[in-house]
Amino acid sequence: MILTFNIKYGRDFSGELRKAKQIAEFALKTHTLSSKDVKQFGLKSIIANQILRKYSKNKTIKRVNHVNLTIPNQGVRVDEEKKEIYIPSLKLTLNYNFRNDFEKINQIELDEQYAHVSVTVPEKPMIEPKAWIGVDRNATGHIAVAANPQTGKIWKLGRKAEHIHKKYREIRRKLQKAGKHGLLKRIKNREGNIMTDLNHKVSRKIIEIAKENDAGIKLEKLDGIRNNNKHAKSFDYGLNTWSFYRLQEFIEYKAGLEGIPLTYVEPENTSKECSRCVYMGIGEDKSFRCPHCGHVDHADVNASFSIALRPPSVGGVGQSRVDRDAREGSTDTPRGATPGTTETPEPPKLWRGEYVRRVKGV
Ligand SMILES: [Zn+2]
């Protein structure tokens, strides 16, 4: 699997980027592949060569818009102990936080602010799931609730989220009122970072649960977020939406790395449909009650069971094209993670109502 990590590098390479664009324009005109021909532009040949290869050979590119500095694998040194990447041609040192078990760095692309480090990481073969864990991300007060219908076990994850939201909402409100916009922005960033951290932890836990249960993971399709129009434009709503996609993205790439099948189900009525008898139940705030079979449950728990028991939606597998923009401004997070879920095995046969619930009083 190829992952791309973005690292903010904090140096000014605008001169080099300008030269790179000139070389690309030159390449389009002359189709030269020799770095000697572009020596006059003064860009290191290892980088110039990458540009020539792209723009001299390609007959379909008509105009040069934006050119990044691309450093190939052989132009990169890695110190795994210090977790440093060194690019001799630019005398640039990058510190990385991602795991050391990558096979190699394929290349690094630099734009004005970020180094996009593309690494190949080993992927485990896809497991044959013996169960499916349903993950409800619309949980009240939690980031997610996971459930395994085969064992009846549930997991409530990211309980801190509600506390964090409340705390920061109050701080934001005060700063807004006082007109301290600079501080407000910093506070928003901090809240975002804390949420990212929490999403990392929750996604790790979900992967752990899936592994322990020999299970695949089921999520609601992207539009599964319960849209409350009244708040659609508020910062809270934006943060929640962003957090929702973020968690999905983390689960996707971590599942891909571990060979855990991941699939998506239709989101309609997961919270209203009884996970035991499929009839429509009555949801009141946090509780769920089914008038048909008498099933009573916490609304989020019922939803996570419903998700686990649903068939994969058509074309719902591998919906990894989440809103990449949501990550803008973040550093050192994987980009373009492609989960190994293009061929998700058929879920094991499960019949509603067959499982034994082991959790009481939720
Ligand atoms: Zn029921």
Write the layout of secondary structure elements.
Blueprint: E1 2-8, H1 14-30, H2 45-57, E2 69-72, E3 77-79, E4 84-87, E5 92-95, E6 104-110, E7 114-120, E8 131-136, E9 144-148, E10 153-157, H3 160-178, H4 181-212, E11 215-220, H5 235-258, E12 262-265, E13 282-284, E14 287-289, E15 296-298, H6 299-309, E16 334-335
Parallel strand pairs: 8-11, 11-12
Antiparallel strand pairs: 1-7, 1-16, 2-6, 3-4, 4-5, 6-7, 8-9, 9-10, 13-14, 14-15
Zinc ion is lined by residues 274, 276-277, 279, 281, 290, 292-293, 295.
Short description:
The chain is α+β, with helices and mostly antiparallel strands. The protein is built from six helices and 16 strands.
Fold and architecture overview:
The chain has 362 residues and is of the alpha+beta class. The protein has 6 helices and 16 strands. It has helices at 14-30, 45-57, 160-178, 181-212, 235-258, 299-309; strands at residues 2-8, 69-72, 77-79, 84-87, 92-95, 104-110, 114-120, 131-136, 144-148, 153-157, 215-220, 262-265, 282-284, 287-289, 296-298, 334-335. The strands form 4 sheets. A 5-stranded antiparallel sheet has the order 2-6-7-1-16. It has a 5-stranded mixed sheet with strand order 10-9-8-11-12. α3 packs antiparallel against α4 (181-212) and α4 runs parallel beside α5. Mean pLDDT is 82; it is low at 316-362. The site of zinc ion (ZN) has 9 residues, from loops. Zinc ion binds at residues 274, 276-277, 279, 281, 290, 292-293, 295.
- Low-pLDDT regions: 316-362
**Gap between N and C termini:** 39 Å
Radius of gyration: 24 Å
Query: What class, by secondary structure content?
Result: alpha+beta
The general outline is elongated
**What share of the residues does DSSP label as strand, in percent?**
15-25%
N to C succession of SSEs? EHHEEEEEEEEEHHEHEEEEHE
The overall pLDDT average reads 82
Count of DSSP E strands? 16
- The helix content, as a percent range, equals 25-40%
Bound molecules: zinc ion
Query: Count of helical segments?
Result: 6
Strands ordered across the widest β-sheet: 2-6-7-1-16
* Largest sheet descriptor: 5 strands, antiparallel
